Amino acid sequence: SFSSKYITQLPPDPLFGLKARYVEDPRTDKIDLGIGAYRDNNGKPWILPSVKLAENLLQNSKDYNHEYLPISGLKQFTQAAAKVILGEDSKAIKEDRLVSIQSLSGTGALHVVSRFLKDFYKNDSNPESLPTIYLSQPTWANHIQIFNFSGLKTAAYPYWDNATKSLDLDGFLKSIENAPTGSVFLLHATAHNPTGLDPKPEQWKKILRAIDENGHLPLFDSAYQGFSSGSLSKDSWAVREAVDGDYKFPILICQSFAKNVGMYGERVGAVHLILPEHDEALNKAAFSQLSKIIRAEISNPPSYGAKIVSLILNTPELKKQWEQDLITMSTRIGQMRLKLRDELVKLGTPGTWNHIVEQQGMFSFTGLTPVQVERCEKEHGVYLVGSGRISVAGLNEGNYKRVAKAFDEVVR
Ligand code: PLP
């Protein structure tokens, strides 16, 4: 039977719960720095000009319809998406070492990958054992439950050193060395959520080398390509180093277009598997098993957003406009980082605030404690995540001074 003995009520999801409290708050000057969604300088959602152009093209085309996509998704989209992350001239594409499939945005990609790893990623000396998924400490909260849902265990690797507000590279490397062979290391491709702190190229090389030498698999979660630097190629440096460098591991990539095309609700994403060498039989087998997972879970992926993104990626003028849109978004976020930092310095707010401008992507890990975060919300109507993370995209010319004042008051 259904009984509350078995069905226990869960607390609201922390992030969406935060959003609900924000919506209910009657204060007219409340400020939402919670969910990682881009806002324009008026605090409003932004439909990218490239998306508007693509929607126009799509809706005026004679083939416009809402038919089902194939199980593996829209091929023009998945192929072009692979080039966005791997580069136009990727060896993996030329050597036919790539398997791609469309997913329900980044979350769906992670979910498909979790199932695929559980069923098919084997440690040859102990094929019965399941791989452990190593996640950065801290990481996007949903990572843990996505992998646990598929019956995989997660473990944490040191990442953020709170004392220095920088990367704990030694701790990270030790954790790679100590993990059982055949573990999976989830790596944020760029714009780490929640810290906004990414390894530098030399640090990435050490991390990837250690993953390779210890027989693990790198799983890249790419949800913010374009948000760190405004450049698609710069923001995929780590992925391209892993794919094109001298390593022998297979690679998995979960790619989301939610943020970088601003189509959060349309669920556009892809999974890419890169095999270390060309193996046609393995390539086909992996594609068939990934397709089976999609068929069993969602039958086929949503088409509208994939068609829009496919048009953007495959039409040179639209691609150019999209690259411009990424610069618009990343530049505005960068300016807001500067303004907030400068305002805190101007107020003489206790503590150091340079990390706000040194971090990149959508988020800043402010260093505010849970008690200070709660006070920000209660006393000032400034909503941020309990960890002290702010979505910098929620700042604008009209509100950053009030945010700085709120921070100033709660840390004193
Ligand atoms: N990965 C990270 C690190 C994220 O921050 C997010 C979204 O916030 C996702 C994946 C997945 O996002 P979506 O499912 O909307 O593509």
Automatic annotation (TrEMBL):
Protein's GO biological process: aspartate biosynthetic process
Tagged with keyword Transferase: yes
One MF annotation (Gene Ontology) recorded for this entry: pyridoxal phosphate binding
GO CC annotation, single: cytosol
Alphabetized InterPro entries for the sequence: Aminotransferase_I/II_large, Asp_trans, NHTrfase_class1_PyrdxlP-BS, PyrdxlP-dep_Trfase, PyrdxlP-dep_Trfase_major, PyrdxlP-dep_Trfase_small
CDD domains, alphabetized: AAT_like (cd00609)
One Pfam family per UniProt: Aminotran_1_2
Enzyme Commission designation: 2.6.1.1
Domain named Aminotransferase class I/classII large: residues: 28-407
UniProt KW keywords: Aminotransferase, Pyridoxal phosphate, Transferase
Bilayer-spanning residue ranges: none
Main EC class the enzyme belongs to: transferase
Catalytic reaction list: L-aspartate + 2-oxoglutarate = oxaloacetate + L-glutamate
Names of required cofactors: pyridoxal 5'-phosphate
Keyword Transferase: yes
NCBIfam families: PRK09257.1
Assembly: Homodimer.
Membership in a protein family: Belongs to the class-I pyridoxal-phosphate-dependent aminotransferase family.
Further remarks about this protein from its record: In eukaryotes there are cytoplasmic, mitochondrial and chloroplastic isozymes.
The protein's name in its UniProt record: Aspartate aminotransferase
Organism listed in the record: Ambrosiozyma monospora
Taxon lineage: Eukaryota, Fungi, Dikarya, Ascomycota, Saccharomycotina
